[in-house]
Amino acid sequence: MPLSNLDNRKDYPYVMNTPHQPVLYKEIIHSLQPRRGGRYVDGTLGAGGHARGILEASAPDGRLLGLDVDPQALAIARETLAPYEHRIHLAQASYTTLSAQLTNLKWDSVDGILLDLGASSMQFDTAERGFSFQHDAPLDMRFGPSALQTAADIVNTYSESELADVLYEYGEERDSRKLARAIVKARPLHTTGELVAVIEAVSPRRGSRVHPATRTFQALRIAVNDELASVAKTLPEAVASLHVGGRLAVISFHSLEDRIVKDFFREQSKDLVNPPYEKLYEVERKAIIKEVNRKPILPSEEETKDNPRARSAKLRIAEKL
Question: Which of 21, 42, 133, 228 has the most CB atoms around it within 10 Å of its CB?
């Protein structure tokens, strides 16, 4: 079944029915093409929805490594995946440790890897985690307890120029300097509600559907969890970990993530003669992957209607050559 023909859910048997419906679920399972006896990695396990589909599709003996830095997510995933406990390995760890995790399992390579980037619906829905500007909570925003800083640390200790840079680079916030100035003036700020009040005073909503705090909260979350650097570091490791014919599927939710994935896939899918870093030698580097889809796969209208948070999701898939 071609990826472009996945709009009818009844055509695909492994559709989840959970409070946290995984984004692009049927497209992910179809893209990774799980098979009997295969080895797979879900580097962003969450509640275990995608992992469950992979395990169902690779029955009876496919195996899966699930990683997540969030202990709350892991606890839920263990319950979700309990029927498959003899075929799973779960670890509270970042996908940036992928190579080490595979070495621990003595897995030389795998058949498929999934990275579902950014914060999960579960994290947004847990008010006390501080991810959402719709709930008053401590300024935390850590994916897991191992993060070195919280959003409060950034808001209250960064200089005005450093804070403006974070808001502009990670949130693409046009009012970054004005917001940074107001935040520094209002410090200390300890809760999401306090931060939202500062933002709304500087950038009133003026009828826009997008809340003025959206970009600032995105920027702080990315900075707290070092998200962009983590993605850039992990993509080469993920490709190196695949069997020939194995697939890497990446879901991104904003342009900064998607640009990193797109550029990496494009670069690694081209033959390269005389790479810039090998100027002294006639070196030819063959493409190591092929892009399964040149354009990102987007959620169907049905999915975005059921789950509005899916509307910004983009799926890119690469296959190891």
Answer: 42
For residue range 6-65, list pLDDT tens digits in order: 333 333 333 344 445 799 999 999 999 999 999 999 999 999 999 999 999 999 999 999
Q: How much is the pLDDT for 263?
A: 97
Residues of the chain with pLDDT under 70: 1-20, 206-208, 274-283
Q: Is 67 left (phi over 0), alpha (psi -120 to 50) or beta?
A: beta
Give the span between the Cα atoms of 35 and 113, in whole angstroms. 13
> Strand 63-68 and strand 88-92: pairing?
parallel
Global confidence as pTM? 0.89
Residue (of 72, 71, 70, 28) closest to 51 by Cα position: 28
3-state secondary structure of 291: strand
Domain architecture of the chain: domains with CATH: 3-122+229-320 (3.40.50.150), 127-225 (1.10.150.170)
**Number of CB atoms found within 10 A of residue 288's CB:** 18
Range 8-14, long-range pairs (CB < 8 A, 24+ positions): 9/302, 14/52, 14/53, 14/56, 14/57
Alpha carbon separation from 122 to 18, 31, 47, 125 (Å, rounded): 12, 24, 8, 5
Give dist(CA 178, CA 118) in Å, integer. Answer: 26
